[in-house]
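Give me the fold.
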Amino acid sequence: MPSEFGEQVNSSDKHVFEPLYKNPDAVGKTGRVFYFSRHGESENNLFGKIGGDASLTTNGKQYATLLAAYMNQMELNDLQVWHSEFVRTKQTAAEIRAPKFVIPQINEIHAGLHDNMTYEEIAMHYPKDFAERDQDKLRYRYPCGDSYIDVCTRMMEVMPTMLTTDNLLIISHQAVLRCLVNFLRKNDMKKMPYEKIPLHTLFKVTLDEDGINLIEEVKMAVECVDTYRPKPSNCRVDRSFAESISSVPAHL
């Protein structure tokens, strides 16, 4: 459960996916295909705010239309769409001709007291928290919110179904899909918070029994902001404000 204050998660997180690796019900048939995408660009993306429940921008709505056209023209048998509880994923899924299911386990990482704030605002008002998250982004838990480990733990409730369902499209969020990509590629979990999941991109996953899963990117020709923030070189609590926001992506 989320704690009241920001903290380092003490669970044996390096083994978080171990039950899933060993679960025979979570082994997808070789050649099984499913898809995933972030929601279209949201108003919060445009203004550099994290979390929240913002609607899509004009560009985000255009992506939703192109994504629907792409998926609809494939005429996949029994296509189903999973999306989170947030407005931006519902809007992204709206025009796709397929049954849609709201899956709370794929909600975005909950930023707690920092929800709807910009990185600059967090760095200004919560400099210690901001530095601690940069030091260990995987385990850091937002005050009254989630850590990446928390996101992975709840995702594991639905991943066996996800990995064994053909023609599934998941429309979710950056942190959630980072967890998924990290699992599919069997990457070091320390890399998870920095997996690149760009906006306005459809990902096609083809499962392989040897664990070398193929992830192909289909980029849609719709402009969007870049929300990727690399780890800054200085993560000390006593760093300057300018140093703390040096890797924040450009936004309005």
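Confidence is low (pLDDT under 50) at residues 1-12.
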